[in-house]
Design a protein that fits this description.
Elements (H helix, E strand, L loop, with lengths): L10 H7 L20 E4 L3 E2 L16 H6 L3 H17 L4 E3 L22 H17 L3 E7 L12 E3 L2 H8 L1 H6 L6 E4 L3 E2 L2 E2 L4 H10 L5 E3 L8 H7 L9 H12 L5 H22 L8 H15 L1 E5 L11 E4 L27 H8 L4 E4 L13 H9 L3 E7 L18 H13 L3 E6 L15 E4 L7 H10 L12 E2 L16 E3 L8 H7 L3 E3 L10 E11 L2 E10 L5 E11 L10 E10 L4 E9 L5 E3 L4 E3 L3 E10 L2 E11 L2 E8 L1
Parallel strand pairs: 1-3, 3-4, 4-6, 5-7, 5-17, 6-9, 11-12, 11-13, 13-14, 14-15
Antiparallel strand pairs: 1-2, 7-8, 10-15, 16-18, 19-20, 20-23, 21-22, 21-26, 24-25, 26-27, 27-28
Helix pairs in contact: 1-10, 3-4, 3-11, 11-15, 12-15, 13-14
Amino acid sequence: MKKITVNNLTVEEKLRLICGDGFWYTYDFDGKLPKIKVTDASMGVRMTGDDGKDKQSVAYPSMQMLANTWNTDIVRKYAECVADDCLAAGADVLLGPGINIKRSPLNGRNFEYFSEDPCLAGILAREYVAAMQSEGAAACVKHFCCNNLEYNRNLQSSCVDERTLREIYLKPFEIAMQAKPLSIMCCYNKINGVQGSENAEGFKILREEYGFDGLIMSDWDAVYDRAKAAKAGLDLEMPFSKKNYDKLVSDYNSDVISVEQIDECAQRVLNFIYGSKELQKGKSRKHSLEERIAFTQTVEEEGIVLLKNNGVLPLKNGQSAALCGEFASPKGLNVCGGGSGQVPRLTPAYDIPALLSSAHNGKIIYEPAFGDRCTVYGYNPGVAIDNAAQSDVNIVFAGTGAYFECEGGDRAYMQLHPVQERAILDTAKANENTVVVLFAGAPIDMSAWVDKVAAVVWAGFPGEKGGEAVVNVLTGKVNPSGKLSETFPVCYEDTPAANSYMDGKVTVYEEGIFVGYRYYDKYGVPVLFPFGHGLSYSDFGYKNLKIGGRGGKIEINFEIENKSALGGKEVAQIYVRNVCSTISRPEKELKAFKKVFIAAGKTEKVSVNIDTSDLACWSVASEKWEVEDGVYEIIVAASATDIRLTGKITVKDGVFYATNKMQ
């Protein structure tokens, strides 16, 4: 098929081309152009059939769980597998990944996003996009930008200062653009009073500063004035809206929009169509369906976070265990996030009581105790208490699910449902060796019960084989290595989002750059579990920090020793701090990380590189990134509050000089 350019199209055809076709397709002029199909992709491929129902597909752990792996190899394979699912289902473009910053723990779509930290979110997104597109499926990075709540998302305005935009909310997109995604999706909300689909300044930054040369499409029904959006740089409206199309034609005829402006959008739509098909040439599916299903377990095993453990885990051979909570054997319960990210799984719902009975040499007894939407109808919580009292270990399986965490709305509160909190407290009173396994996509306020239980396991929203992964962690077959990609505050009232102004139309980002751990560090606010936190069944020690390099390149070398008799993986996190800045800056900022396996009793050398440009902050006065001269601290940590090694460097005119002050 000969490629078409805008010069081959009439004005009427160009106007039609930039308005999509139906719900999922680009317009093809009755076969004159290839037809591109897009599909949702937050926990796998969500494909809607002709009957309006979602088709079954491989259900993967949520993006939050993927981020909790801190493993770029896992991220790349995850993206390859989802790309295989996409192309096998007949789609060309996956509407993801979502890389919005987690400003508020109540955001209903937090399970779809990577992190509160722009460096972590950006690096994972870059690896995801690169791997997905190498496998033949085009990526659509979303939602550009500041879509940090679902409340009134179509109309509310995120009011953010320029420095905060640059350092926090635009930064993940800047890093992700290094992978050359074919498309980006705009947000529903307004940014400083300007509709996301008409964000000319933001689109200009994408193209002129970040080097993005792909297509900008709308979120679904996020366009309110097609001519104004096109003039701002939005290339493709989705889905097709006859009302908007007719108005666009009228605006063109009235000289509201020029043919040159239409040409720019239309040519990028053409480039997107041909580029999506070009990605697929010579590509075959790398991973079989069976391999893709099996891989969901690998992701979950690396993403499960052991939040607390007084030694009760892993379960000891022969111990009896009482299990309660329908999340252990959910059947019809949607243990996932709701909305466009929800995928009907291919395999039956997991059954942890049965899996644990097969994997563990000890008596297992199970009572659901609470069911769908946390009711107790048809169950007997009293039996769960009796079971706990007569068992060596008590395990409560609790959480949220699609009813509580969903696109289109935010959580009303951070706590578990009162029925679940009561089950935890009552059974923990009967058995001090109580373990809580949580299935959720965003932080939980555990203040009512966390001090009364022996262990807490964060299982997130699991994929096809999530049950097997949880059992393997509980029994010690898998040594947990996940770390939190976001801070777990003690309560919502402790978060900066809770203290900022908000009404029906405006959300003011009063905290500025102090989002997530940056805020808790700066103002000394205690947290439940810090950013980057995650326990292991191994014990790791850090030593021998050396900082070298040349010019603007900084090489950080150190060693991690496994002091235990069990091999495991550790995530080393590199933060930087300007010791004495002339402007307000965070106490530390993540700039790099590395996950390494260390065999029992062994020591591994770790090398991580950063650049002096990573030390920069945005200067509003000069409207550019600047690196201040001065002393910087290089911090090697196991979490945002667990600092293991520090060293100092001096920077002058963008060149660094290492000092000998290390510990």
